[in-house]
Task: inverse folding
């Protein structure tokens, strides 16, 4: 190797591979390593701007997108840490700037990760813990007004759960997912999510199953945290296609969210309730509307209107992309498709790829009344992806017509050989990993 090659900085992908080797488990819920590393870094988590901490099973990313949109419309600088990324690791780190934030660039992210690596000095630590520490360290280097912080998995033992006094904690809808880590009952999972609740910090809670709400309310009482629950402290409804939000401070009649689906009204309402529950920032009504109208969040019922893959599908067809991967995620995607069918009827094809630890039958059951045409595909470069044959068996058990294809591209091309009286509506779904590969192949990665 020549001198110039030896000096070449590693790519971000190479660096992530190297850092991932520091701990044998990709997921290991334990805050001990995180506390040690943050102490070595002189506690950047204690130097952050006010933090809004968001946990839940579904809707976390969309809720954060609305929060960011509203806060930025109010003229505030907003740092954002979310996971997982779809195409590039940079997507997890958004640095707040006047006039709107931007994803961290490669050089600055590499520098931050290498700083964390040197500080950690080879001790066992997961890649998510390293990335979370890097987010805190990056955010401290750049002035901002607020940090939006998404839980990675669960809450109580998640690497993000090191913020002692958040501005607010938010819990989106809780449902069954990641049972191997969080427990196999809704109440057990709710207990893990409620673990982010901190003393005296307001808790803003989406509509929940009754047993879940009981768990959250009990933890809020233990922490003397005021709770603002959907359907009790605040309400959101759809009236004449508009979002109507109401709490004890009054009513707001706002334009519909840009993100598609009835569930997005609920996510937007949760963001509004969160910002109405705090007193640090004054938010004018115009900022609430601008924020929800302009918010974007990729791979959540996202319409692919142009790109490489669109050109491969049947002419004039619709292609929708959704990263839903559990039963509740399938339910809201199916409900959104039902709304589309009421507006303009089209034959529906669902191209689906899932990870092996997901409940394929529970996910696909949501689409049984909408389509009988399922195409099961692999998720490339994922060792723990569900084989398409196993996914197809789950669809057949539901009475669906199902076939397999070697890739999502091949699945799209296969549809061009069919004779449609009306161009089809195509949903590609089942995994955020699959969604990321779709956006990359289409030439439309998140920006």
Result:
């Amino acid at each position: 190797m020549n001198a110039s090659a030896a000096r070449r900085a590693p790519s971000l992908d190479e660096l992530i591979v190297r850092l991932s080797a520091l701990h044998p488990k990709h997921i290991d819920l334990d805050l001990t390593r995180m506390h040690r590393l943050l102490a070595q870094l002189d506690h950047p988590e204690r130097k952050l701007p006010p933090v809004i901490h968001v946990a839940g099973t579904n809707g976390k990313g969309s809720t954060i997108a609305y929060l960011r949109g509203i806060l930025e419309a109010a003229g505030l600088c907003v740092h954002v840490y979310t996971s997982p990324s779809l195409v590039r690791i940079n997507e997890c780190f958004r640095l707040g700037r006047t006039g709107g934030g931007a994803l961290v660039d490669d050089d600055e992210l590499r520098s931050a990760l290498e700083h964390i690596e040197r500080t950690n000095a080879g001790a066992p630590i997961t890649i998510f813990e390293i990335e979370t520490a890097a987010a805190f360290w990056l955010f401290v280097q750049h002035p901002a007004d607020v940090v939006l912080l998404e839980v990675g998995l669960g809450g109580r033992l998640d690497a993000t759960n090191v913020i002692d006094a958040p501005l607010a904690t938010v819990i989106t809808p809780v449902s069954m997912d990641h049972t191997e880590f969080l427990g196999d009952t809704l109440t057990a999972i709710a207990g893990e999510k409620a673990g982010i609740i901190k003393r005296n910090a307001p808790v803003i809670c989406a509509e929940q199953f009754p047993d879940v709400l009981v768990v959250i309310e009990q933890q809020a009482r233990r922490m003397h945290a005021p709770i603002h629950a959907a359907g009790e402290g605040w309400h959101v409804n759809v009236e004449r296609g508009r979002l109507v939000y109401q709490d004890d401070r009054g009513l707001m009649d706002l334009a519909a969210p840009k993100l598609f689906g009835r569930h997005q009204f609920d996510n937007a309402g949760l963001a509004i309730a969160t910002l109405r529950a705090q007193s640090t920032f004054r938010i004018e009504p115009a900022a609430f509307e601008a924020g929800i109208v302009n918010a974007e969040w990729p791979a959540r019922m996202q319409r692919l209107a142009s790109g490489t893959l669109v050109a491969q599908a049947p002419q004039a067809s619709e292609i929708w992309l959704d990263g839903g991967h559990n039963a509740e995620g399938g339910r809201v995607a199916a409900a959104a498709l039902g709304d589309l069918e009421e507006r303009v009827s089209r034959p529906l094809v669902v191209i689906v790829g899932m990870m092996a630890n997901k409940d394929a039958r529970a996910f696909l059951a949501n689409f049984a009344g909408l389509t009988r045409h399922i195409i099961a595909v692999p998720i490339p470069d994922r060792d723990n992806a569900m084989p398409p044959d196993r996914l197809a068996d789950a669809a057949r058990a539901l009475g669906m017509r199902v076939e397999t294809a070697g890739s999502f591209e091949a699945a799209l091309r296969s549809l061009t050989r069919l004779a449609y009286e009306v161009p089809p509506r195509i949903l590609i779904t089942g995994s955020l990993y699959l969604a990321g590969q779709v956006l990359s192949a289409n030439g439309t990665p998140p920006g």
Summary: The chain has two domains: 3-294, 302-442.
